[in-house]
Amino acid sequence: MPRYKRLFAYLKPYVPQIVLASFCTMLVAASTLLIAPLAGNAFKAIGDKDFQFLNLTAAGIIGLYFLKGLFTYGQEYLSYHVANKVIIDLRQELYRRLEKLSLDFYGKWHSGEIISRMMNDITTLQTTILTSFTAIVPQTILLIGLIGYIFWLNWRLSLLTFIALPLIVQVIRMFASELRHISERVQQKSADITSHVQETVSQIKTVQSFTMEEAEAAKFKKENDHAFQITMKAAQILSTQSPVIAFLQAIAAVGIVWYGGLEIIGGRLTLPQLISFATALGIMTDPGSTLSKSFTVFQQGMASAKRIFELLDAPVTVLDRPGAKPLPRIAGKVEFADVSFAYEKEPVLENINLTVEAGEMIALVGRTGSGKSTLVNLLPRFWDPRDGAVKIDGRDLREVTLESLRKQIAIVPQEIALFRGTIKENLRYGRPDATESEVINAAKAANAYNFITELPNGFETEVGERGAKLSGGEKQRIAIARAILRDPRLLILDEATSSLDVETESLLREALEKLMAGRTSFIIAHRLYTVEKASRVVVLDNGRIVEVGTHQELLARGGLYQYLSEIQLKNKA
Length: 573
Hints:
Layout: H1 3-9, H2 15-48, H3 51-100, H4 103-108, H5 111-153, H6 155-161, H7 165-202, H8 204-209, H9 213-265, H10 271-312, E1 334-343, E2 346-356, E3 361-366, H11 372-377, E4 387-392, E5 395-396, H12 402-406, E6 409-412, H13 423-427, H14 436-445, H15 449-454, H16 472-486, E7 490-494, H17 502-516, E8 520-524, H18 528-533, E9 536-541, E10 544-549, H19 551-557, H20 560-572
Helix pairs in contact: 2-3, 2-5, 2-10, 3-5, 5-6, 5-7, 5-10, 6-9, 7-9, 7-10, 9-10, 14-16, 16-17
Transmembrane segments: 20-39, 51-71, 127-151, 157-176, 242-261
Subcellular location: Cell membrane
GO cellular component, one term: plasma membrane
């Protein structure tokens, strides 16, 4: 579907406001059109020395401008209302789409690119919609009315006026085509700059610790300079367009004065009529110039619309199947049956067969890239397996609704990222209806209550962006408390690799034991304590399960697990 047709679909809910705005537009055009004949009448009154008629004409012109102002207010206010509502609807739909898109999408797209399309392109499109309502539509109506009026005055003079019109239209089309292409490049470069800034800010600690400020600044300058070059190409087109069109209009104006004089000499036109004609043409220069610039804005908006619709059209690869049923509260038995998975065409998991009984604690061990994270990401259906099936309590996860599945799972990631807001708001994330006592009990169970209450504002303490105001251990305990409050039947934990002080480590162990008690748990293990406590240890290598057993059993076998354990012990030593 063409982009402009898709945009029109967003206007349908606001047809009443559009109709009313259009009515105001008609009245604006009508009041403007009446000014030209009144101006001619004023000069006629001067020639006839009819001062009473001159006074009435002057009052009529002032009255028309007053009415035009009122109708313009109504037209522009309603236009702003519709345009802003459409943008809000579009932004909301885009946000909802981003929430539903699967992890494979976010693996391909830079966050800065997404943010740029969400903000910059939406803003550009908003300007385009406003321009369409406040400029293109009313000015087009006015222009059509003025053209009809001058043809009524003198069709010969009007034909001469429009000799240059096809050339002007062709020039506008040529500039519009060039500008549409360059606008797409400008928006893309804006997205690149946004990505660079977002990446630098999010990794500022790394940038500063490696003293890479100058190098990053140099890369940013290169991006900025490239953006300047592209923007100046757009400026060159814009700067050339207006004088070229103005020159063509000037040629037409000289021709009109010359031919109009001949018509008066020949008795086919009166001076008041020529003045009315010239007044109408003078009024026409404004809609003509406005439309020229508006079509430029329109082309920029269409370039942004293309980028926005690319996001809206991005496929959701994991979604509820037709007929999917809600998953009742689970016991927690998990089965991987002949599961294989690949990113694009790159195999990651091959023929995984594993049955985990309800309440078991499974430690996943393996080299980097062995498939541990991918395996646990199949449980909440961040991805679906290429072959085989993942089942909970005997039910294929693809046959149940995503919401009912994910509500029974809690994930404590390796890198804890809290949301901007208070500690209480972060604890309630996922369970906003939790009571005050439930929040406090969860904090106590996670050994987070003491440090929270020691803060000046307690549970109302602002955590900062991504929890920047808290230590790593504090953030981990809040994440554990959040998981406890959710009361999941299935737990996924990716242990942090960073070292913690002895006291914090002890508090975390105790909190994790409370969290895992009675729940089926999958832990990507990095600590000896974890694998010793696990019901079973599952060792992965190159996407396959190579060993399964307890910590002691696997050490006795002398396989990969023993080798990895020895390396870890040597590194600690």
